[in-house]
Design goal:
The protein is α/β, with parallel strands linked by helices. The protein is built from 19 helices and 26 strands. Strand 1 and strand 2 form a beta hairpin.
Length: about 550
């Protein structure tokens, strides 16, 4: 038995209603424990003058899978310093790994831990590529991980939906895919749009029919959200809506929300889906419209996908939209690919510029959304790494949300039309540490059904971040004094001191095994991955994930 006490820190633990109280946090064998203050412990850490929060939980960050390797191959300059290689780490515990917008797997784990994050989730795992995605995530040290499998553009799902299959059959198919790929949730990207692009459709709005399957994105969202709810998956359907990045796409975003018909849904990177067509440039903020819709629909949660200025690379399964944006690539190169006839992939490098009207407005729209949605439990802090910005920019984003004066300074540097007209100028809200703890810890953990993460209650996993309190939130959140992972110190003074293997979260839905006959008849054709090779067993998952612990989530099937 090992024990540890963090003494006298100011605790922000929204899941348990603790808002800045000075108290001790005790740990026994990797779990938060109730120890008598006089009880001796193996290690005591003086946390006076520090802020204590649960370890950060990032529910949408592209950290593994084929498209990230393509992005790394496309951006070798991100892994060099000019013409010279990046120097090797000066920390003997760190193996060589680098990159900012396309970091290697090892650097991904080190940099997340150095900010106080302890769990990260890949939002776009292709079913036929699930093994590779799990192996890549297993290579990421320190942080726990999991993934959402993509559905809604795969041929069998569209065929069943087109044939008006019984909803129970669709549910069983979704359950089988989650089981086979060891996913934690289900994501749909540009519903039916990736498939439509392969039939040379260049756009597909919510109520337009797929030229071949004659199904609409509304039908896809409705069928998948119902299946996810009936299977009892903790995380609602994760939705990358239609018309990403298109002026006027607020209409399709609101239509997608309506397609849920009251069922739970999580709309992701909504900054890219909140655009109007007003003004001389026919490109305007629709953040207020979306925020009002989210405020009025308690079944909907969102993450923002904030953009921040500088070089990054956009990597998405939305081949239709990435093809349309390829001419904007900076540097001027891109990759478009099909993946096993199962999904798509587009990788486009991009530099967000302060002097660009569109980019400046995108920056403003994201911040407006953060500050206009009233319930912090339904909005999660993300940059859609690396699409809006690298995840390492989170401390800067937190300062923008907490400091109105700093926000105004940055706004004044932008394109003059945006600086003069942005609604952000009139928004006076500054987020508190309590609200930041909700958006970065408690809310994403709750939305993913991780009952013992994102909080510091008795029995919770002892994933704890300790920050030295200071006036500059960016500096504070950039360099924690301590980070504990399952009760073990992994970072001290912003420097990695241990590199344990992270655990894998996945769901265990129940389904009618009779669906396997349908799947087998489909995969007998020489396309994609055959059913007999598709299922990842637990032993194999453990090997894929570098021997890390497996953390299955129970599902509670229900009628809809």
């Amino acid at each position: 038995m090992t024990t540890l006490r963090l003494r006298g820190g100011r605790v922000f633990d929204p899941a348990n209603g603790i808002d800045g109280e000075v108290r001790d946090i005790a740990v026994r064998d990797g779990r938060i424990a109730a120890l008598d203050p006089r009880e001796p412990v193996d290690q005591e850490i003086d946390a006076a003058g520090c802020i204590l929060m649960a370890g950060g939980v990032d529910l949408h960050s592209h950290i593994g899978g084929g498209k990230m390797n393509l992005a790394r191959l496309l951006m070798p300059e991100d892994h060099r310093r000019g013409i010279s290689p990046v120097p090797l780490p000066d920390n003997a515990l760190e193996l060589a790994s680098c990159g900012l917008c396309t970091p290697g797997t090892l650097a991904t784990g080190y940099r997340y831990a150095e900010m106080g994050y302890t769990s990260v989730f890949e939002p776009a795992m292709v079913a036929s590529n699930a093994r590779q995605a799990h192996m890549e995530m297993g290579d990421i040290p320190i942080v726990d991980h999991g993934a959402y499998v993509m559905l809604g553009n795969d041929e069998l799902f569209l065929r069943l939906l087109s044939a008006k299959a019984d909803p129970q059959r669709l549910r069983d198919y979704v359950g089988w895919v989650v089981h086979a790929t060891k996913a934690l949730g289900v994501k749909v990207v540009n519903p039916a749009g990736i498939s439509a692009f392969k039939f040379n459709q260049r756009r597909l709005d919510v109520d337009e029919a797929h030229t071949h399957w004659q199904v609409t994105p509304r039908q896809v969202v409705g069928a998948l959200s119902r299946a996810v709810a009936e299977l009892g998956l903790a995380h609602p359907l994760h939705i990358h809506a239609s018309n990403l990045g298109v002026a006027g796409n607020i209409d399709s975003t609101l239509a997608t929300m309506a397609a849920l018909e009251g069922l739970p849904g999580h709309l992701t990177h909504v900054q890219f889906h909140s655009y109007g067509t007003e003004g001389p440039k026919k490109f305007s903020s629709a953040a207020l419209q979306l925020a009002e819709a989210v405020n009025a629909h308690p079944n909907v949660s969102i993450d923002v996908g904030q953009i921040l200025f500088g070089q990054t690379v956009t990597a998405s399964a939305d081949t239709m939209r990435q093809h349309a944006n390829a001419h904007l690539a900076s540097p001027r190169k891109w990759i478009g690919a099909d993946i096993e006839c199962d999904a798509g992939c587009g990788v486009v490098p991009f530099r967000y510029r302060e002097e660009s009207y569109v980019n400046a407005l995108q920056w403003s729209i994201g911040l407006e959304l953060f500050l206009l949605v009233r319930d912090p439990w339904r909005i999660v802090l993300t940059t859609d790494h690396p699409n809006g910005a690298p995840f390492t920019s989170y401390p800067h984003l937190i300062r923008l949300l907490m400091d109105k004066g700093f926000r105004d300074e940055q706004l004044a540097k932008l394109h003059p039309d945006v600086a003069a007209q942005s609604a952000l100028r009139e928004i006076r809200r500054e987020l508190s540490l309590y609200e930041i703890a909700i958006m970065t810890r408690a809310a994403p953990a709750r939305l993913l059904g991780l009952r013992d993460r994102g909080q510091l209650g008795i029995g919770a996993a002892a994933d704890v971040a300790v920050y030295r309190e200071q006036g500059d939130p960016e500096a504070m959140f950039s360099r924690p004094a301590w980070v504990l992972k399952d009760g073990v110190p992994v970072v001290r003074d912003g420097r990695v001191v241990a590199t344990p293997t992270g655990a894998t979260h996945f769901a265990q839905p129940s389904f009618d095994p009779g669906i396997e006959r349908v799947i087998e008849s489909h995969t007998d054709r020489p396309l994609g991955l055959h059913k007999r090779h598709a299922v990842i067993g637990r032993d194999e998952l453990c090997r894929c994930c570098n021997g890390g612990r497996l953390l299955p989530s129970e599902c509670f099937a229900r009628s809809v």
